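We now fix the convention by which a protein and its fold are recorded. Think of the row as the fold of the chain written in a discrete alphabet. Here is one such record, which you should read through line by line.
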Amino acid sequence: MDLTNFSFLFPDERSRQDYYSGKTLSDIDMYTLSELGMLEILELKTSELSEYFTTDPEVMKYRREIFADMMSCPAISETFAKLMPVLSDITELRRLEADSAAQSDDYLSSITEIELYISCVEILYNGLTSAREQIKSRAFKALDERVRELAESEYYAELNKKLEELTKRVREIKSISIGVNLDAQLRPTYAGVLSINPEPFKSGDAIDKILRLNFKDDEYTCIANLVPFGKKQSDNQKTALSIAFNSAINEVYRSSLKSWKKIVQTYVLENTDFLISLMPEIEFFVKGTEMLDRLKAKGCPLCEPEVAPISERVFVADELCNPVVALKLRDGEEIVSNDVSFALDDALIYVLTGPNRGGKSVITCALGLSAAMMQLGMFVPAKNAKISPVDAIFTHFPTGADDTIDKGRLGEECARLGEIFDSVTKYSMVLLDESFSSTGSYEGSYIASEVLSGLSQVGCRCLFATHLHELAAEVDRINEQSSASGGVKIDTLVAGIEEGKRSFKIHRAKPDGKSYARDIAERYGLTYENILKKIK
């Protein structure tokens, strides 16, 4: 079985090509992920999370199978945890070989790389064998079959045997014997290696000189030290002799090296290259699994979403949670969930109003996070969900960007929204949180109503969380205006207050800005009736 093009991200070459050609690529960049809070709970070192979003339902299903296997079988993650440092060592060894002009260590590098390769195979073989009965995903079944084929092959057994023999020979080298020809004036004219020895030479100090009287035939006793290793010699002199010795050893092993290099190039490199290329993917699945396991431990619901066609533009979820908030909760604190529904035959755009710190930002981010998690191939933090993929997610959250110095806060907000309209399509998701809060309610509501009218014509899914209650009151007028030219329906949501306390529950209702103030006034005894009692 050839795994040259094996990937944990894509089930086949067609889906890989569709992605890299841009056909199934989703534009969810690192800035947006940071705004949503995704990088707080899932950050990678060997790649960027933005590289993994897809609109292909089959690719999502393929990845979810992998996550399911890893969540149900911790041995797989443990195997990857052992494998990653070995692959890093191979990568570093190759980097050093590429950077080094000297060839004196070639034989050691060859042996070391084969040792590391064998370690990789053993780690994978043992780990996948222990998990074989639990593995259900196509990816792990294919990898298990290939690794078993390698580990149980005669060639692999012979490679182990030859490596053991050569390693033993190399590791047993303790000294070399050199011969030097001299001319009539006792000047060196030629030098070479006479033998490579399994025993070290004895020093030529005073004790050895005395003992040497009884060991004249001992070929492992020095009768004099070579000058470059004297205490008064410079580092350059010592280095010169070391290079000469290494060069000589390399010459001795040249014939062996050729055969080993051939093995490395035709067999080991071929089989380690595909493992090294998988390092970013392995990290993605290991850290993604860790995140999902943490959510599960917190009691956050996780479901396999139904991936609806992108043309349906649907987002329906029951008991949707914000995973970032869920992971920050202390033990015993309850996760608040909400039901959401965006549908073509109902409403695709919502204006969400409610009290400050009432959960508006939490649910706004939860929508983006859930769409992103689905399109990474993960489970979604909800009891159940039916979601159409998005071709992009655009966020417009409060910011302290440097542009505000030149444009002013309102100007900066408008500029950013203008950029969103340059790229947004009906398959996108737009999330706005407290947009136009830098200006008065009249001006803010006017601009916001224009933006909502425009988004209605685009036909994308959008949640506009705002403190502008006047904007919510304008929804009926905007719908009447937009529907005449084919715009999608806009509706309103309200972040609830129950008995003067924020419930963090989101309801589909017409907002009543006074109700929040009234509940709070009653809670603190500041109704007109209570005030009259106080002053009397």
